[in-house]
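User: I'll paste a sequence; please echo it back and then give the predicted structure.

Assistant: Echoing your sequence first, then the prediction.
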Amino acid sequence: MQEEIISSVMDGKDTVALLPTGGGKSLCFQIPVMAMEGIGVVISPLVALMNDQVKSLQERGIKAMSITGGISIDELRTALDNAIYGNYKFIYLSPERLQQEMVQNAIRHMNVNLIAVDEAHCISQWGNDFRPAYKNIHLLRELHPLIPIIALTATATPEVLQDTIIQLQMELPGVYKQSFVRENLSYQVCFENDKLYRMQQLLKSNTESAIVYVRSRSAAVETANELNSLGISSTYFHGGISKNDKQTRLANWKSNKVKTMVATNAFGMGIDHPTVRYVIHTQLPESLESYFQEAGRAGRDGAYAVAVILFNEYDKLLVRKQFVDSLASAKDLKKLYRTLNNYFQIPYGEGEFTEHNFSFTEFCQTYQLNTLRTYNGLNALDRLGVLQLSQEFGRKSKLQFLVSSEVLLQYFSKDPAISVIGKTILRLYSGIFDTPTFINLELVASKSGQSIKRIIETLKLFERDQLLELTLYETDATLSFLVPREDDKTINIIAKEVTNLNEKKASQVASVLNYVENSNDCKSVQLVRYFGETEVPPCGICSVCASQDTKATKKEVKLIADAILHLLEEQELNSREISERLTFTEAKIVHVLQLLLDAEKIRRNSKNQFYRNK
């Protein structure tokens, strides 16, 4: 649908593009921007995707820049001046950057020809990946009211689509929705208690890339180590590893030096790697939106690929506990909001637009709060406009030693406590002499047995004595109150929305459970039906289709197998063409095809056709 979408944009119309993962969304806004005079403003929540697209454009001689976090005001001012006066064609921004008045003023003076909003479902409060900063993207419409907007996404239910159009203030947009069906992708759901064994069976003969999704950082490390011990080349990826490690591991995986990436959901967004043959989820996802996007990273080259969920009864309990039972009710939010105000000593009727350094761990420990429910509560208050939790939530201090290890060890000998802290940091972070390295103060405290306060004092001492270069965050977030303190009255205003959002999350989890438990309907049909697509035939290759009506006798299996092999002597055929040439039921043919694949008597090519393995 790229041509229709591009034509709509070129005609100056607001446009919505719903294309599945790998559907070529970026060209739908890049081509119109290149064809018209002026600069395109692209809003994206994904730093990795922004950087990849900017690099790709620059390699083609196209002037593009991305403005993300971590730059000074002077650097930001210079970049914006370049965008205005330097004949740039693209400026990529995070939604958080757009909130800055300096950025808005610069955009007002740019000759903007198109506004593109990537991952546009994030603007909807009903979307799975809601980001509060997306709510203010309509500012661009106010800055350039005559410029068309294109909204792009791969995962939007009809409800999310309608909300997105309203939130972006789009005027009679052209909506172009490609089918969500992925004909080359076999969706499989397996009830499995021994998940490691099942992964070994799936991956042992895989010669291309695979992704294994796990829920936690520790599970990523543990699973990668277990797969390596079984001879399956693996590495792990999560939000806690350094930027250099992320780049190295991603490069090794994309170049096929390492076959399998074991990752949390921090991995994959904006990463275009076409030859992923398997995406395996070892735990249930929180929603079908997130699952569809993650599963869709398999088979982007159009060749046969498999997306598998491995689950058991405990996983069903766990997904409810993590994503439904831990939600904060209106009553919970009243208590949390009152506690926050007391913690920061905000008088009644005051506090609006005040900003405070905030240590989440210290706050929870002080009031003995449940961390998961508190975290969900803070996000709910952020989402509903009561407060703003900084995007640096969970940020880490960064340091680099400037002297040799010999000089350091001699310095450490002055004080046993200093020595313990210093040596703990050296043990935990091996590359800390070569490059600025993020460190986790809580981890250092845990390993050294010293308080965070003492560790901070020691790091400041090291900095004073010019032993290291330090960027220190004494708290892990910044919290801003957006309304004056009125305790229960503040929450009563949003109580109905809180209930609606919690019901939506419960509904999303229920949809996941229904998906894994429904063994009657084609898995592909179940998924696309969730996104509003109803007139779709069964795929023929998912775990349901391959198991229905397959009670063939041994004699039948041999007859069907012989007939298939005979057909494939002459030419390569797909499953539908084979079914048309034989008199057996389609389900039995699909079943025998799978048996022949497992026995390596046949193989499948990039066009999803079968051929004999001679």
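The longest strand covers residues 185-191. The chain has five domains: 2-177, 185-311+518-527, 322-393+477-507, 397-471, 554-612.
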